[in-house]
């Protein structure tokens, strides 16, 4: 089962449950924001009440976040990430120190309206030149700071910008098309051990596979609830929050994304996310337009 958002025939966003090849609306819940204001027990009860199902292949899925929801990221949480950041950076020590520090690296990635969904493009900056996807297990927390589910995140990153100076991290991470989420949220009560999930990344360029990698959330150095607690300590998230927990797959320095590359991330028991690379702001103007029309 996955919790999803999708468009009704009249264009309205609907909160639903996808089971196999069908999707059904959750009765009495009008938005993901409403859903993520519930406690985990209340949420489990709410999503058990669904209406008539329809085939999922005829549905346009939307990002699983709305309202005042936000996506945040934790950085340098895998040994591979620490090593890659040190390789590319002129200031290596900051990454080595944060990997073992009590305080995690946390940064805001995108408000709900900037998030792209499965099948939509992801972006790279025109002024970067060296960009990679970062496949990450994303933890979904309700407004009470409880973990209620998991999804797949692509935390797109400019290695060339961050490598010049760690203070450029916001520019390396926050840009049009820089954050993608899988269409569905797998409820936490259906994932037996989120610290033992395989993560696979495949990048295709035309007919060729130009990169692939595999890791496991067992290599994640920080506990998931500890990361959520650190995020909630100074902040309220009244409509819930999604926290991407860092990447354990980073291509070598001789690889960079190109326009048209197809990125597929699969996390066992959680889901799959596929996006095609686009360059610059233009391909993402629809995000602002659809927000104004209240379609997302």
TrEMBL record:
<keyword id="KW-0479">Metal-binding</keyword>
<dbReference type="GO" id="GO:0003824">
    <property type="term" value="F:catalytic activity"/>
</dbReference>
<dbReference type="Pfam" id="PF10370">
    <property type="entry name" value="Rv2993c-like_N"/>
</dbReference>
<comment type="similarity">
    <text>Belongs to the FAH family.</text>
</comment>
<dbReference type="Pfam" id="PF01557">
    <property type="entry name" value="FAA_hydrolase"/>
</dbReference>
<dbReference type="InterPro" id="IPR011234">
    <property type="entry name" value="Fumarylacetoacetase-like_C"/>
</dbReference>
<feature type="domain" description="Rv2993c-like N-terminal">
    <location>
        <begin position="1"/>
        <end position="64"/>
    </location>
</feature>
<dbReference type="InterPro" id="IPR036663">
    <property type="entry name" value="Fumarylacetoacetase_C_sf"/>
</dbReference>
<dbReference type="InterPro" id="IPR051121">
    <property type="entry name" value="FAH"/>
</dbReference>
<dbReference type="GO" id="GO:0044281">
    <property type="term" value="P:small molecule metabolic process"/>
</dbReference>
<protein>
    <submittedName>
        <fullName>2-dehydro-3-deoxy-D-arabinonate dehydratase</fullName>
    </submittedName>
</protein>
<dbReference type="InterPro" id="IPR018833">
    <property type="entry name" value="Rv2993c-like_N"/>
</dbReference>
<dbReference type="GO" id="GO:0046872">
    <property type="term" value="F:metal ion binding"/>
</dbReference>
<feature type="domain" description="Fumarylacetoacetase-like C-terminal">
    <location>
        <begin position="71"/>
        <end position="277"/>
    </location>
</feature>
């Amino acid at each position: 089962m996955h919790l999803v958002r999708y468009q009704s025939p009249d264009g309205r966003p609907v909160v639903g449950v996808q089971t196999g090849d069908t999707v059904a609306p959750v009765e009495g819940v009008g938005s993901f924001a409403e859903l993520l204001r519930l406690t985990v027990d209340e949420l489990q009860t709410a999503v058990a009440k669904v209406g008539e199902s329809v085939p999922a292949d005829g549905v346009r899925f939307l990002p699983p976040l709305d309202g005042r929801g936000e996506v945040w990221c934790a950085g340098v949480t895998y040994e591979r990430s620490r090593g890659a950041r040190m390789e590319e950076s002129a200031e290596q020590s900051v990454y080595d120190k944060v990997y073992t520090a009590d305080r995690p690296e946390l940064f805001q990635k995108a408000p709900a309206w900037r998030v792209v969904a499965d099948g939509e493009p992801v972006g790279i900056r025109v002024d970067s030149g060296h960009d990679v996807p970062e496949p990450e297990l994303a933890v979904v927390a309700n407004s009470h700071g409880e973990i209620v589910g998991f999804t797949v995140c692509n935390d797109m990153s400019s290695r060339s910008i961050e490598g010049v100076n760690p203070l450029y991290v916001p520019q390396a991470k926050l840009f049009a098309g820089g954050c993608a989420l899988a269409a569905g949220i797998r409820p936490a009560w259906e994932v037996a051990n989120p610290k033992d999930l395989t993560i696979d990344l495949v990048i295709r360029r035309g007919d060729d596979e130009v990169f692939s990698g595999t890791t496991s959330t067992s290599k994640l150095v920080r506990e998931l609830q500890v990361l959520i607690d650190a995020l909630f300590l100074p902040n309220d998230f009244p409509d819930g929050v999604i926290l991407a927990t860092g990447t354990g797959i980073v291509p070598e320095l001789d690889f960079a994304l190109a326009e048209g590359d197809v990125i597929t991330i699969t996390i066992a028991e959680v889901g799959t996310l596929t996006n095609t690379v686009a360059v610059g702001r233009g391909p993402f103007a629809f995000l602002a337009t659809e927000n104004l029309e209240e379609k997302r």
